[in-house]
Request: fold
Amino acid sequence: MDRTEAWTEIDAHRHDLVELLESLTAEDWRRPSLCAGWTVRQVAAHLALQNTRWTQLPRAVVDLARHGGIDGAIHAAACRHAELPVADIVGEIRDRIGVRRPLPTVTYRETAIDYLVHGQDIAVPLGRRLPVPTRLAALAADRVWSSRRMFHAAARFAGYRFTADDVDWAAGQGREVNGPIVALLLLFTGRPAAQAQLAGPGAADVRAGRTPSAA
Reply:
């Protein structure tokens, strides 16, 4: 999948996400998301912050110092942005449709990870379905697997071979684990919610958090 194809699918996913958000009740917005410690509203606000530009850098530096690192700073920014009316949050995500310019220092691959994973963070605990384009999810899984600065999936799951059963994608060496690409993407990004969809000789050990040498 090339850059243009990826942005086309990201835009389609943004549209689907906006439709989902527009259907949520006030109670839905307050519910916990799959992202530990974050509400649905805070996750949506984080996605709305895809509009961030370098003009917000001074505030980001303050957040980094005050909240002990990047994760704390990101959460602080999302909590602050979540104070906006939900219509404004949804409107900002809608306004990103057609904008093919990622945040500073990242690429369209990281943008795909953000939308696909956080979209499921919102949809899954609400019992809603948010379709995930499989080829875009494969691109996101490739980036997560290969990254040495986020998630550390290749190191955490050393000794396993993961294969998607709905798109041509595989990574790793060792005991076989297979399942839908979205379930693998959620697994690699620290979300256990889709582990029941995994199969293969290594699936039970992955669900139990065992390494192949300890199995």
About this structure: Confidence is low (pLDDT under 50) at residues 60-65. The chain has two domains: 3-126, 134-214.
